[in-house]
Amino acid sequence: MVIAADAMAKLTVYPIAEGGSAGTRLTNWIVNGKVADDTAQPPRREDWSRPGVLKDVLPFARRLHLPFLDVEALIRATSQFFEYPECDRDPLPWWTQGRVTLLGDAAHPMYPSGSNGSAQAILDARCLAGRLSELAPEAALSAYEAERLPKTSEIVRSNRRGGPERVLDLVAERAPEGFVRLEDVVNPGELADIIGGYSRLVGLAETAGGSAGPMSG
Hints:
2 domains; two-stranded antiparallel ribbon
């Protein structure tokens, strides 16, 4: 698996299965590109089955130069691909009314940094099941919201700056022309702080008791 990025574009590539001919592989590629910010015109409405357009994706792909992969050729060889807008929503002030509550994307749609769209839904479910096993329904839902809403709100805000891949943005910012030794650009302590801090934020770091939250990849 390869993840390459700068501040404006990110490429993810990984094999899925054997290809249709000898020496080939069925390969999945994803190009993430920043198309808007808080001051720009909003992008088109979300559409999870919109065919992609070469002229939209190639400017982002051309930013990423890998010595072992012709990114543009890979994209041009793909007969059909799709555009999946990534978007989030501001954290909600509340999730619960009486015996009704929200969970997962209904409660906290977020940029899927570190696979935390799905991982946080799993943590929601685990918390909700635990509270329902201990308390009456309305009290359980209130306790669930009190525990999970602040945590997920912080993750929504953090994911706007990027997840653990934030290390790539940092390196690209400091060494836009490339580098020979990573240690000359960023020290191991900085990398550990970014990755470890994010793991603790999203509940993947080990607790003092030695247990760990669910892993995502």
